[in-house]
Amino acid sequence: MMASDGVNGTPGCRCIKEETVYQGEWLSLGVTTYQDPQGQHRTWETVRRTTRCDGYKTDGAAVVAVLKRALHYDQLILVQQFRPAINGLTLEFPAGLCDAGESVEDCAIRELREETGYTGQVVSVSPAVCMDAGLSNCTTCLVTAQIDGDDIVNIRPKPHPEFLKVLYFPMSELMMRINEYSRKEGVTVDSRVYMYAMALQQCKGKEPVQRSPGRIDKK
Questions:
Q1: Are 98 and 59 in contact (CB under 8 A)?
Q2: Are 65 and 118 in contact (CB under 8 A)?
Q3: Cβ(51)–Cβ(31) below 8 Å
Q4: Counting beta carbons within 10 angstroms of the beta carbon of residue 143, is it exposed (0 to 12), middle (13 to 18) or buried (19 or more)?
Q5: pLDDT for 137 beyond 90
Q6: Of the four listed, 22, 172, 184, 198, which is most buried by Cβ atoms within 10 Å?
Q7: For the Nudix hydrolase domain, which residue ranges apply (predicted)?
Q8: Could you tell me the pTM of the whole model?
């Protein structure tokens, strides 16, 4: 016998209770008891952010920022930073958490300015999308922004002192340049960045990555 309808009509699936195992300043670790489609009770270890503002559906914003200048190729602006969780460098979109009372658009422009020094204009905002639903409840909004590189405020951008390196990649060769840079510098590319590059590559009718059946690159 199937259980009653659960979340969004999924037969029987629903959370029953949540227990916090560890509470930190930024994150908490919990155990969620839920009901599967067959009515069985199961548990799932879950990481949750403790910083999401009340009433918000998203934790923050990630900025797909394109720099446009006269007589120059369009460039995607990315940031490189050290991430202790993987003990290594990553290549990411500028991003950050929303402050209380701050819109997603304002969060995106603030983070872009703090991390890169540039001032941009928001073009579009995605709905809240999950980051790693098998692990956590973290969500973000993907905000596309254009930067007028010829505007006087963007001639000599001065990012706030953060442990970041601002990098520029030509949109016309994004996949190739990202692959080259990650191999040369040993950085791990954020999945959102790589999927964005793959999508652009496929729009051109090209293979997004070099095929290598059965082979996984090892360090």
A1: yes
A2: yes
A3: no
A4: buried
A5: yes
A6: 198
A7: 56-191
A8: 0.86
Q: Report the sign of the C-alpha dihedral through residues 98, 103, 107, 108, in that order.
A: positive
- The pair of structure tokens assigned to 6 is 């659960």
Residue 84, pLDDT > 50, answer yes
Q: Is residue 5's pLDDT more than 80?
A: no
**SS3 (DSSP) at 36:** coil
Q: Write the DSSP assignment of 133-196 as a string of letters.
A: TTTB--EEEEEEEEEETTSGGGSS----S-SEEEEEEEGGGHHHHHHHHHHHHTPEEPHHHHHH
Q: Please, which residues bridge with residue 139 across strands?
A: 130
What letter represents residue 146's amino acid?
A: Q
Could you give the angle at which helices 174-185 and 191-203 cross, rounded to 10 degrees? 140
